[in-house]
Amino acid sequence: MFGVTYAEIGATAGELPEGYHHVRVERVIGRGRTDFDRACDELLAGEVQRRAGVEVRVSDAPLRRGSSVRMRIRLGPLVVTAPCIVVWAERSATLCGFAYGTLPGHPERGEERFEIRLEGSGRVVFRIIAFSQPARWFTRLGGPVARLVQARMTRRYLRALDRSAAPAR
């Protein structure tokens, strides 16, 4: 289904599968309906990736199930292409987000979920949940470096929607 490079489609919604590196992080990015709606609009337009310094092309905005996401990440003189497809997308009164899965050619194999929740307290919380493993020779060879790059990108993603944080560029 979708042509993804892993079997556990949708696993970022629950228990993460064994055999992968796991990420579960969150950040409060605002308060109230206005902040929630703004963050949802930006998230579903691919702004998280853009503000984190990634060149991104999306087939649809807002993102929806089946949308393609093609990212280009510059690492010094290298340019890495990371094609993905959206395997889940939702927007309701208190939850919005999407998850994309890796396609052939992506340096990793797995899924990443970006979700924003408007809590009863009024807090707007941005969560990132992911599982991944190396899929290409250079990510297998550079395992620790690849994890450092992933951790850096995750921090930049988390700051991308926070109105109180400096721009993540």
Roughly what fraction of the amino acids lie in strands? 35-45%
Look at the structure and give the CATH class: Alpha Beta
Helix content: 10-25%
N-to-C CA distance: 34 Å
Low-pLDDT segments, ≥5 res: 165-169
Strand runs, count: 7
The name CATH uses for the topology is Alpha-D-Glucose-1,6-Bisphosphate, Chain A, domain 4
3D architecture notes:
With 169 residues, this protein is α+β, with helices and mostly antiparallel strands. The protein has a single domain (20-160), classed as START domain (Alpha-D-Glucose-1,6-Bisphosphate, Chain A, domain 4), CATH 3.30.530.20. Helix content is 24%, strand content 40%. The chain is built from 4 helices and 7 strands, in the order βααββββββαα. The chain has helices spanning 32-43, 47-51, 137-141, 143-160; strands at 21-31, 55-58, 68-75, 78-91, 95-102, 108-118, 123-134. It has a 7-stranded antiparallel beta sheet. A hairpin with a 5-residue loop joins strand 5 and strand 6.
